[in-house]
Amino acid sequence: MKALLGAGAVFALLASGVMAKPPLKDVAEVREGLIVVGMAYEISKRCDDIDARLLRGISYLNQLKARARDLGYSEREIEAYTDDKAEKDRLEGIARARLSDLGAPRGDERGHCRVGEAQMAANTAVGQLLR
């Protein structure tokens, strides 16, 4: 009987949301994936010699969305996250800061080209979204 009561208590805790999933912005693999896309986009926008691989980028974003669904997030939760202007701005800021740390500060076209070329040569996640 005690085992049943203990199991019931665990179930009640789970049902009450004590072990609820974190906000999507706190899911590292999704957040980092969006930052990668942002970095690739910024490079392709700033460097005339490098283009974004659009189909690959769309596929990558669809994979991120599928992963979020696999983790239990609803379409509504995913859309709310991707449509959140403040979160978009925050992620763009992170992407730009990482590019700057790599040698591509905002406004430095040549720096963006060098970083993009290095990312492609190293076959990084960012580099795979560029050509």
Structure explained in plain terms:
The chain has 131 residues and is mainly alpha-helical. The chain has one domain. It is 69% helix and 0% strand. The chain has helices at residues 2-16, 28-46, 54-70, 75-83, 85-102, 109-121. Helix 2 runs antiparallel to helix 3 (54-70), helix 2 crosses helix 5 (85-102) and helix 2 crosses helix 6 (109-121). The termini are far apart. Mean pLDDT is 90; it is low at 3-7 and 9-18.
Question: Which labels suit this protein?
Answer:
131 residues; mainly alpha
In terms of DSSP E residues, the strand content is under 5%
Portion of residues in helices?
55-70%
Q: Mind describing the biggest β-sheet?
A: none
Cα distance spanning the termini? 64 Å
Rg, nearest Å:
20 Å
Work out the helix count. 6
Total domain modules: 1
In oligomeric terms, what are we looking at? single chain
SSE-based structural type:
mainly alpha
Can you tell me the residue ranges where pLDDT is under 50 for at least 5 consecutive residues?
3-7, 9-18
H-E string: HHHHHH
- State mean pLDDT (0 to 100 scale): 90
Number of strands: 0
Shape: elongated
